[in-house]
Amino acid sequence: MLIEIAFIVLFTTMTAYAIRHYKFTWSRLYSRQKRAYQELAGHYLPSVSIIVPMHNEEMVAPHILQRLVEMDYPKENGMYEVIALNDCSEDRTGEIIDEFAEKYPFIKAVHRTETGGHGKPEAMNVALKFVHNEIIITFDADYLPSKDCVKRLVAPFYDPEVGAVMGRVVPANSPDSLTTRLLDLERAAGYQVDQQARYNLDLIILYGGTVGGFRRDVLKRIGGWDETKLAEDTDLSFKVFLAGWKVVYVNPAEAYEEAVPTWKQRSRQLRRWAIGHIQCLFDHLIPIIKSPFLTFWQKVDGILLLGVFLIPFLMFSGWILGLISYLFIPPAWSSFFIAIPATIAYINLGNFAMLNEVAASAYIDGRKRAIWLLPSMLLLVVHSVWVCTVAFFEAILLHRKQREFKRNWDKTDRAGNGFLHYNNLRNNNNRNNHKNNWYKTQHNGNGIKYLNGGEKREKRK
Amino acid sequence: MNIGYFVLFALYTAVACVPFILGYLEYKKPVDPGPLFINLDRVVTDRNEALILRERVKPAIEVGIITKERDMEDLSPEKVLREKPKFHPELGYFRLVYGDTFIPDQTSIKDLLIVIGNLRLGNRCKILGGAYATGEIRVGSECVIRFLASDSDVYLGQNTLVDRWIDAKGKIVISRDCKIAKVTSDSIIEAVECCEVKEVCAVRGFEICDPSKKPLELEGS
Predict the structure, then answer these.
(1) ipTM of this predicted complex?
(2) Is the domain defined by A33-285 classed in CATH 3.90.550.10?
(3) A190: DSSP letter
(4) Confidence of residue A407 (pLDDT cuts 50, 70, 90)
(5) For chain B, what is the domain count?
(6) pTM of the shown model
(7) Which of B23, B41, B90 lies at the smallest CB-CB distance from A375?
(8) Which end of chain B is more exposed for a tag (fewer CB within 10 A), N or C?
(9) B35: nearest CB among A147, A172, A326
């Protein structure tokens, strides 16, 4: 009896998520797409402060700072400022920031030497004290934004109800390893389909901590970044929604990032996200239900969104229960009727719904053979089942002592490969001068393969 | 529990492995390893909306040409304008017409009008979804239009209101008493008489054809 009840609960939850995924895919493929105020891009130009927190980022710091120098935005009269925060770096990050700050008056170097080093949210709160402008945009150090990125991101703030925006993230180092290739597909689904669909449907848009921004007043009113949270960006998104502001997803505001190249780094990242989301679920569940600002469907989506990292744990439970029913319970109506259909249903509906989003994003982005890796996405699923199941129990333990929790920088090591891959891609693109040829030529085009160290290690004959 | 369960399980596992073969091939000999191309050097230009529209309309036009060449569908103006509009997620509701098109006086169209050929609008027409033509566009007088884009020339009749913008690869001629938010052209813009334009951008310049009459009111550059 217990197994049947467990199956019904699992089946219902997985079906809810599956319907949500299919709804998003349908909305992205077949419904009218919202434009995110892009007709105002370039016309509405408020004063902007860009925050870039850095901790041991010498491999990537020059690239992001150079991109921000070249950003297409009026830089006169303090309209545009970059706050490059060096948070207790032990490498050349500080020197690189100083070099740029000397050269360009709109770059402000902020160095923390002794009191800092307690993680990104704390660094962001420090940087917030130096902000003078109306809009705050954030970029992580490994990001490469396009020149029009800031103009596109600030356009929605023309609407006085908009409190925050989020742009699209694309991995630049996808050729590095199988992990980066799978993450490339996953990110495409997450932004091109998931976020855009949520925006189309007027649901909860998640601020991802980078390539996004806030009104300064809104950020100060909600207390800035929460230093006790492992997913401070998710926490901030919900605080903005709960305070009654709109959040807008700007799909054309694109930036490259470096995805984690190894499974070990992926585990660390996923664990952080999972614990962070579950922390936010504990904190925001009741306020979401009670909120007078959120619509019914926003409440439903908000809860499902915060619980998304519980799904791997539920899947794990489902697999165990499915195996027990299939192998050890004598064939009776219960095991046959409940166990097998339920197992098939949550695998097909639950897992494949997510893969469906990946396929849709690959179709929209015009990807070709990358989609052949789609079945291999199950590796990501199995990996996340393990990591998130462990993280689920860690989050419960952590929740008890959250008040004393003080975090440190839990950052991913950057190789700087994203910049090399982008240059490689652009050169080949220019050489071939054909829009759709890039996917055929960029990998072997110049015979150079860049490995994780960032150096040119191998030259093919 | 008997051996049959395990045989079935093994068979299922073997079948389930089949889709991974393609993934293995792509991983070992990558053809499309990414990254997805983003032009990091792109900027927001004065013709941003027009360029975006052209990009979005391009697939619809290609489909229209292929459809027409293969006689798959009747895309004549008479039929298309009578029937229900089509829908595309990026374009919204639209009507795709193949061939030179004339829209009679006082016609109101709510959807985006895409014309593969020349477009002529009668007097007092309302094109509330905007219009795009691969050929020339001639607009009658007292029309109300959301936006206009042409790969050739555009001629605007008197007292026409264009709510957003006009963009043309050829020249744009604006008649008396027109009100337009923005006009951009790859070629030249000629304003005939008194009219109101908030923004103008033309590669080959801007001319007021009859300076002896009331001058053009320009608000901005």
Answers:
(1) 0.77
(2) yes
(3) I
(4) low
(5) 1
(6) 0.83
(7) B23
(8) C
(9) A172
